[in-house]
Amino acid sequence: MEEKVFHIPVLPKETIEFLSPAPGEIFVDCTLGGGGHAEKILKRIGPSGKLVGIDCDPEAIRESQKNLARFKDQVIFVNDNFINLKNILQNLNISGIDGILFDLGVSWHQLETPERGFSLKEKGMDASLDMRMNPAQQFKAYDIVNFYPEKKLRELFFKLGEEPFGGKIAREIIRARDRKKIKTCGELLDLIRRATPPDYRFSRKGHWATKTFRALRMEVNQELPTLEETLPQALEVLKPGGRLVVISF
């Protein structure tokens, strides 16, 4: 049976080059995922080093615990949002760290798990409008699509999704939900299709609904406000000469 890949770490060589981990140092991976980047850091910091791995997705914590089992004495796994970075380190009695990593966005596992509501693939069309990175969170994409006013939806699609047809998509959503609640990814996809012209959909390299889905995901998980609040914390806990790497694309 073929083993599923949880997440493929991006820019691994460049990440390690900029973080420059050395034996005995302390690092924090704020987006642990499957532990791909963490493994490379752990190999560099050695038995005398320590890595704090944070992820708000309990599935990621379970997967990384398996993948990093041989480093168990060097890793502290924390199932939490990295917005609590400073408190997490205080609770661990860690006063300063040598390097911090953020790999922003959605993981391969989250995209490939249809019921999480992130996927635009056919197998994900019956999934509910979820998009939570932390399954314990109450707020879902369903709440945005069905209860945000048109103006707020339009701003969301323009600003977070950079979707040129954000206004038309917002209006189509409002008209549809006046008749009945929008419950699945497939239902939302049909509305986006109606609101966008064929030449726009067929001329794009990626999926034509990606920008709308990205905007919803970022709003559900409050990705920008969380990062804005966390980066000052990261700078505060870094030792002099510490390194901070943020991966985003």
TrEMBL record:
Keywords: Methyltransferase, rRNA processing, S-adenosyl-L-methionine, Transferase
Alphabetized InterPro entries for the sequence: RsmH (IPR002903), SAM-dep_MeTrfase_MraW_recog (IPR023397), SAM-dependent_MTases_sf (IPR029063)
GO biological process: rRNA base methylation
SUPFAM superfamilies: Putative methyltransferase TM0872, insert domain, S-adenosyl-L-methionine-dependent methyltransferases
Keyword hit for Methyltransferase: yes
Pfam families in alphabetical order: Methyltransf_5 (PF01795)
Keyword rRNA processing among UniProt keywords: yes
Cellular component terms per the entry's GO annotation: cytoplasm
GO molecular function terms noted in the UniProt entry: rRNA (cytosine-N4-)-methyltransferase activity
UniProt family annotation: Belongs to the methyltransferase superfamily. RsmH family.
Protein name: 16S rRNA (Cytosine(1402)-N(4))-methyltransferase
The organism of origin for this protein: Candidatus Shapirobacteria bacterium CG10_big_fil_rev_8_21_14_0_10_40_9
